[in-house]
What we know:
The complex is a heterodimer. By secondary structure, chain A is mostly beta strands.
Amino acid sequence: MKRRAFLGAGLAAGALFASNAGGRAEEPAPRATGCLGLIVERASGSVLLIDNVRRAALGRIEGLGDLSHATAVFSPCERYAYVFGRDGGLTKLDLLESRIEKRVLQSGNSIGGAISDDGRLIAVANYTPGGVNIFDADALAQAASIPALGADGKASKTVGIVPLPGRRFIFSLYDAGEIWIADFGDGATPKLTKFANAGRLPYDGNVTSDARHYLAGLFGEDGFAHIDLWAPELKCERVAQNYFGGQQRLPVYKMPHLEGWGQSAGELLLPACGAHEVLAIDLQTMALKKRIPTHGQPVFCVARPDGREVWVNFAHPLNDIVQIIDVPTLDVVHSFAPGPGVMHLEFTPRGNEIWISARDADRVVVMDVRRREKIAEIPAQKPSGILFASRAHRLGG
Amino acid sequence: MAKGAALLTMIALLPPACAAAQQPRDKLVSLVRQDCGSCHGLTLKGGLGPALLPPNLAGKSVEGLAAIILDGVPGTPMPPWRGELSPEDARWIAQELKEGFPQ
């Protein structure tokens, strides 16, 4: 029972499990997964299984290892989640049964991963020893390994991995400053396309939902690396260069993330690295359109699913505030304090509600998006990432 | 009069404006685990930044590590923490990292 410690015992838990804490034998009701999700509890190596329609935690699944910086992807049927842990652990969870289906320690240290468009392959980007490992999504058997040796021959950390159509993955090599595409279209042996000299120290990358624009944020340069994946001849170019315009970069206490970035109305809203600014890039010209001043250094810039607003959280020590940017005017229109240590934000699939993790208050706050009012609170242990199963059907990262 | 004297001692004890005051140990432990952990890992086994476990730091001096913590490593993501940590805090963290950081 340890792995299934129930929280909201009287809520949906009874319907989810054949035998519940009361010991009564109950037939499990038929159940769907479209409203399920996970909250990562980073310090305790556990995740909360949640229902975002009932706004309730259904149970806690423990034993997932070091979950700092953990993230997850979901199978196309929305039954399974694949959680990528910091300790290199790859854990497959069964959301219907609320349990660990399988767990492998695939490397010393990993950062994130992706699931192929056909749902068959799980790719894990690693810090130590670097490179990307590919697993069969059913059994978690290793299917391939891509050592990320840069042009200089040195092993590189890999970051910013996202799926592309046609069983492909794209990712960046942090140390080597390259971007690679691994194409599994012909089976288990990938065809690699490499872009050298992409830019210095790419720290994260993401692709737009049309799988057209891949951008990697550069720590070592003032700008982003960009590949137009619709171009007949792929090439990697710097965009939004000199966004600081000679200004000093502030020390970065937490690296910004490009996941969930604000893609909307022909623009991309991205966190600047080392400035209290969100950057708006014009997707037609890839030129910088506006530097939007914000409360602190942005970490996540998450677009409301309809794209009208972008909600932003900030790095330590200004991480108790969330700001809302209005996309038509590219201005901050609202600021509020959902709790100390805001780590992540996740909209429900249609954007009517948003879940926000306040790590240092040990809770997740659920808000009505239109009214911008709190409607529920879910207790959680040092919550960080919030990941809904509906991500299974979202294009882009 | 007594009140005024107490105020004076208090002011004398305050650190200079730019340096951070020494912080309680549990706050430092949480800062290292949570906020250093975002780059070095919650278990300090490494991430974007290198592992900060005793074997990794064996050959390195407390003073040297404390200097890195206070001033960062220019040209890399390692930021300077001087605004937030006092030299005593940084030395304490460096010492504890070398010995095995408390949970």
